[in-house]
Amino acid sequence: MKFTPIKVNLFNLVKLPLAYLGGVRVSAITDTEVVVVIKHRWMNQNPFNSMFWAAQGMAAEMTTGVLVMKAIDDSKLKCSMLVTSQEARFFKKATGRITFSCKGGNEIKEAIKESIKTGEGQVVVLTSEGKNNDGIVVSRFQFHWSLRVKK
User: Fold this and answer.
1) Cβ neighbour number for residue 49 with a 10 Å cutoff
2) Which end of the chain has fewer CB atoms within 10 angstroms, the N or the C?
3) What pTM value is reported for the model?
């Protein structure tokens, strides 16, 4: 599959309907960065008139997961991928449009190369930062992805 925002968003509609219904949308994909937007609305709100932390988590994980999937696809290798740990920090109420981005494409490629060399799984830690329309960081997520090239 060619990784374009439209194709990934259609994939989400079919395979990850909760993320799609919650408003998670991929807006940009490159070899090194993925950008995802989510708008605060009734479907993803908490009782405090801001975005539920789990909705932010879906958007944040989407940036890292799409980047991992694209790197694996670009490598033309069979590779397993699994989130083994996740951490999050929240700095400000998430209202309006929140833009998450992850710029860890090069780290993923290095982990794949190391897995080829050692034959063992590698863990890569990817950070996704969510910013509001004013450019203020509202949350920061770290996902620990385990990658192992299959033989």
Assistant:
1) 9
2) C
3) 0.94
pLDDT of residue 44: 96
Spell out, as residue ranges, where the chain has pLDDT lower than 50.
none
Helices within the chain (DSSP H only): 5-15, 17-21, 53-75, 105-118
Task: Determine the pLDDT at residue 116.
Answer: 94
Q: Write b or e for each residue in 115-136: b if 16 or more Cβ atoms lie within 10 A of its Cβ, otherwise e.
A: beeeeebbebebbbbbbbeeee
Q: Which residues pair with 81 in a beta bridge?
A: 147
Half-sphere exposure of 2 (CA within 13 A, CB side): 2
Q: What is the pLDDT of residue 91?
A: 98
Is the domain spanning 5-149 CATH 3.10.129.10? The answer is yes
Q: Are 98 and 37 in contact (CB under 8 A)?
A: yes
